[in-house]
Amino acid sequence: MSTLASVVLALALDALLGEPRRWHPLVGFGRLAQALEARCNRHGNRLGRVTGLLCWAALVLPPVALCALALPAPADTLFGALVLYFALGARSLAEHARAVAEPLLRGELPAARQALSMIVSRDTTALSESGVAAATCESVLENGNDAVFGALFWFVVAGAPGALLFRLANTLDAMWGYRTPRLLHFGWAAARLDDLLNLIPARLTALSYALAGSCANALHCWHTQAARHDSPNAGPVMAAGAGALGLALGGPAVYHGKLEQRPTLGRGRDATPADIDAALRLTRRALLLWLAAITLGGLIATRIGT
User: Fold this and answer.
1) What stretches pass through the bilayer (predicted)?
2) What is the mean pLDDT of the chain?
């Protein structure tokens, strides 16, 4: 049951403290990744894929190995909780979403667009009220997997090193995994490895969204729409999440100055400002389901061990 204790403690730390305002390890990691990419990304061809993979390994594998070697057996519950705490971002996700919702509910669309631009890579300058609400809901649903459930899954499977591996890989995907001319080849490995690490967590997230919301609609959308999305993992998460909320999300969006024709995911009405809080509530209900599943798994493991 030490895994459950670490998970509960890490979630409590995240709820109470949020992300550290200063000296966050991921901030330093991100700066190092940015500097390494600027120095090593010299090849706009397939050789760039090899370079990107080597840079990924140089950044990710040493801290994960150190985490595994430093794991102190007498205090593994506390150590695991601290590592998982740094890998989680549930409170930060809620804070960023509410920073969009609050001005939107007050009718301050320009302020809401500006707040949204802090959490998405699309161009927000021309979005309508419904467009801002929809983009925020999409961010909540997708980042629910990236900032919460993916880290929890790998912590349960592989302990603190697993959670750290997932978080660092996800961070590099967020920095390098874009299909821009500069990053198309260099970021290929970061994007593909993140896809691999998310293969199971994303589907468990989609299932938990379905169970925590409008289940039949979510499962229908997941089954019929997920394959339309470019990402093999974002598709199930977004389709199931939108269906669980009874919303139609997705559609055309501008990324890096280019209009992308994205599929519509979900089934229902257009998003409103109030749906941002509904999306946050969905992720909280899904988290309770994960905690229940981890508790049940711990009880079963304990019973088998005795």
Assistant:
1) 51-71, 148-169, 287-305
2) 92
